Amino acid sequence: MNGPDGRMKHYKDLVALAHSKGLKVIQDVVMNHAGPVFYYDANGSKGFDRESEAEWIQPYKRDGFHDNAAWADIPEWNLHRTAPEGPVELLSVKIPTTGILSKLETYSRKGFSGSSLGASDGEEVTCDFFSLRDLWTAPGSEHFDALVDEFVEIYAFYLTTIGVDGLRIDTVKHVHREFWDAFTERLRKKLGDQAKDKLLFGEVYDDQHPDVLGSYTWRTDWETRKEPSLDSVLDFTFCAAAREYLRADGGNYGSSRKLEAVIRSKTEKGANGRPFYNPTPGPDGLNSIQKSITFLENHDGLNRFRVAGVTERRNALAQGLVMTMAGIPCLYYGTELGLTDEKGRIGQDGETGRLSLDLSGAVKGGPLRKSESFVSVARLTKARSLIPVLRTGATVPLWSDSPDGADDDGVFAFARVGSQPGDFAIVVVNASDAERVTGAGDFSMLLVDAEGKPLAAEGSQLRRLVAVGPVDTAPVTTTLGSTNGKASAKLRVPAQSLVIYLPTK
Predict the structure, then answer these.
(1) Cβ distance 230 to 166 under 8 Å?
(2) Cα–Cα distance measured from residue 101 to residue 97, given in angstroms and rounded to the nearest whole number
(3) Where are the domains of the chain?
(4) Global pTM?
(5) What's the CATH code, domain 393-503?
(6) Among residues 272, 164, 290, which one has the least CA distance to residue 217?
(7) Which residues pair with 295 in a beta bridge?
(8) Which H, E and C letters describe 385-424, residue by residue?
(9) Which class does domain 204-386 fall in?
(10) pLDDT tens digits, residue range 140-155?
(11) Which of 9, 353, 393, 394 is the most exposed, fewest CB within 10 Å of its CB?
């Protein structure tokens, strides 16, 4: 089977193979832009002068558009008018696409501004991405409905015929918000009962404003319609906070205070009284917090957590946070091997870690499963599987390194709390090079839920499970004390370790 049908059959077979091994497949998709499918005829030659930067990139035009755009036709670079140009049949399935993507008026044609990536004044939704051509997604445009429907037909094919399990939607904040309302609603309607098994999450590149991230889980008409727009988003605020805490060289570490703030932000409300994140369950019965994508690394400028100076253990601690926080954990390829981007630098963006799967610094062959990175990820995965509250419980910050003494230096602790009494787990990270406790001076960590209610009674016991770091050679248990009538404890944490404390049966 050759041509498009052959490629699609290969893809469908790949998805089926993944499913047979218990894996789900999320497809990365883009609705903000196409490739450099047209050029700007800056010199008026009626041809693409590919040596001229001006024909690839024109300065941003806030009012109006550049009327000199023309389709590119460079077969050796696979540059041509955007497909499909009409209805398509693949794997004997007729897809009623209209060809709206192959019309120049579907594109903004406003050029590029270097400031648009961080803008929030409307420029960010109408600007090219360098030479990637922006789609005009404004709700008042003549082609709005046709464009939405085109993408619904295209991605419904992948979600149903090919069988992918969800979409990771690129550059979400660079698209008009009303587009996402229409797209998600119409796609779910077309999927019908299958919608409950599909995940739609977006990339909103903002690591400082949880209210902005969460806003994409709400519709623009949220006051009358509470159902989610996107199911969830990639949690860039977690990524930034975890890096501030743990991405340091040697035995150094930063503050965990921002990480604590990120957890609290999940249930905070804005000035309009609306929670940052939509608490209304989607078709699958889960809400946007439960489906938030927790990650530390990606293919863009963030790239690898482990760069020059970051130890394998520190990388494992950071991945431990990913695996024990609320949401869906996302591990970047190679972290289970302890791969390092030696050209990368702490505090700097870079993309040198994504160019190839370089195994030169990794353990190869059979010993791989005995390496610290692999063992840590395996332990964390097993813990998440065997301790349901690590997957479903609410997240409550309990302790951050305080100024009251050195006993808790480098420590951060939080609880995952279930709906039933006694259903909880306490996760504690120690980033320092010495054993620490969850307390300082005369103060001990209180074991309480988000409302301040005790998680356990004084005198009850907790047992320790080491998820990252050397395992205990003998059982370690702690008997809870009391502070102001509430259970409290100075839980011990080995150096450079992540531990989980569970109530004894």
Answers:
(1) no
(2) 9
(3) 204-386, 393-503
(4) 0.94
(5) 2.60.40.1180
(6) 290
(7) 330
(8) HHCCHHHHCEEEEEEECCCCCCCCCCEEEEEEECCCCCCE
(9) alpha beta
(10) 999 999 999 999 999 9
(11) 9
